[in-house]
From TrEMBL:
Protein's UniProt name: Dihydrofolate reductase
Catalyzed reactions per annotation: (6S)-5,6,7,8-tetrahydrofolate + NADP(+) = 7,8-dihydrofolate + NADPH + H(+)
Pathway assigned to this chain's UniProt record: Cofactor biosynthesis; tetrahydrofolate biosynthesis; 5,6,7,8-tetrahydrofolate from 7,8-dihydrofolate: step 1/1
PANTHER family: DIHYDROFOLATE REDUCTASE (PTHR48069:SF3)
Pfam family, one: DHFR_1
GO molecular function, one term: NADP+ binding
E.C. designation(s): 1.5.1.3
Species the sequence originates in: Nitratireductor basaltis
Organism superkingdom: Bacteria
Enzyme class: oxidoreductase
Length: 167
């Protein structure tokens, strides 16, 4: 099963502020939906709460240390490993890890692919994506995306493949 991290991050690594996305990127949300539809999505509790509902057309898996936590419309597990086991049980060929910062830190070590929207700005925030080590990751595609009518910033969409992994 392929593990893909799907993230939008500012040039300074920021991915969130006060439990929310610190930008409005309608163009990227459409890409995110296309990228994750039909795949299990794994997220931390804070990301789940910021979305506020299950993402339709995807198995939603929420990772939290609070075993009593309830997430209507999602499976709740205690670790990233448990989340990945659920996806394997579904025979999913790919799972999308969608945040937040702590889940990304854990998943980066085992991910096969990174689907990154680089927001072309430095933005204040309190959640960050780990640095992408260019010795471990190879850029396989890049697309410049100008800011659309409902976008705060222009972006660059980049797909990274772990070195030594087949596409």
């Amino acid at each position: 099963m392929k593990i893909t991290l799907v993230v939008a991050m500012a040039e300074n690594g920021v991915i969130g502020r006060d439990g929310e996305l610190p930008w409005r990127l309608s163009t990227d949300l459409r890409r995110f939906k296309a990228e994750t539809l039909g795949k299990p999505v794994v997220m931390g509790r804070k990301t789940w709460e910021s979305i506020g509902r299950p993402l339709p057309g995807r198995r939603n898996v929420v990772v939290t240390r609070n075993r009593a936590y309830q997430a209507e419309g999602a499976d709740v597990v205690g670790s990233l490993e448990e989340a990945l086991e659920l996806a394997k049980a579904d025979a999913a060929p790919e799972v999308a890890v969608i945040g937040g910062g702590e889940i990304f830190r854990q998943a980066l070590e085992i991910a096969d692919r990174l689907s990154v929207t680089h927001v072309l700005a430095d933005i204040d925030g309190d959640a960050h994506f780990p640095r992408i080590d260019e010795r471990l990751w190879t850029v396989v595609s890049t697309e410049e995306v100008p800011a659309g009518e409902k976008d705060d910033y222009a972006t660059r969409y980049v797909v990274y493949q772990r070195q030594g992994e087949a596409n």
